[in-house]
Amino acid sequence: MSATQAALTQLLPLAGDTFDKNKVTPGLLGFVVFAALAVGVWALMKSMNRHMGRVDFEEAPEPAAPGADGTRAP
Which terms are listed as keywords in the entry (predicted)? Predict the structure, then answer.
């Protein structure tokens, strides 16, 4: 066992008693990060919808088989 692991195993029980587990929350930073991610996803979806609206797709007709329209194949 390394010195770091030994120190952590001795300090972890002390850290468990210093705070109330029912009152720990993400806080303001967690909210700001979550809100920034939500705004980013909204902006990406809006941009995607705008770009998809600009797409003008027409499927090319399939080439006719020779002799299918009554003409002879050369």
Answer: Membrane, Transmembrane, Transmembrane helix
